[in-house]
Amino acid sequence: MNFTYPAMLTPEEEGGFVVTFRDLPEAITQGETIEDALAEAADCLEEAIALRIDDGLDIPEPSRRRKGEHLVATPLQTAMKAALYLAMRESGISKSELARRLAVDEKVVRRLLDPRHGTRLSVMERALVMLGRHAELRVA
């Protein structure tokens, strides 16, 4: 699973840039400079992924970057939660079943999937292992 998405920065007549993600049409933001626009894009991307998890919606695979697009990475914790969310959906395992397998209360699993709740990386890794997955970090 990859959570780095291509973003288009479109210059505005009045100055600044509008940022859009073709894979996540609801994710639109802006910034005064390219650097500012890309920082806002990361926040916007994080929120779009979080809302899809909250609403039980699909999280699309990122498209290949096209000429003129910038790659924007989802923050690590949100990417891990999205990976766990998708792994649970793909395997058909419910929150209560994952809680049983982890020997924890179901509210712990709900927090694991809550993009706004800080969760230790080791706990998310353990949950992924229970689903037959593992996390790999790639620094680009």
In short:
With 140 residues, the chain is α+β, with helices and mostly antiparallel strands. It is 46% helix and 15% strand.
What can you see in these coordinates?
The protein is an alpha+beta fold and 140 residues long. The chain has two domains: 4-73, Double Stranded RNA Binding Domain; 76-130. Helices cover 46% and strands 15% of the residues. It has helices at 34-55, 76-91, 95-102, 106-113, 121-130; strands spanning 4-11, 17-20, 28-31, 69-73. Strand 2 and strand 3 (28-31) form a beta hairpin. Helix 3 crosses helix 4.
Notable traits:
5 helices, Double Stranded RNA Binding Domain, four-stranded antiparallel sheet, alpha+beta, 2 domains, elongated, about 140 residues
Percentage of helical residues? 40-55%
Low-confidence stretches: none
Q: In terms of structural class, how would the helical and strand content be classed?
A: alpha+beta
Distance between the termini: 16 Å
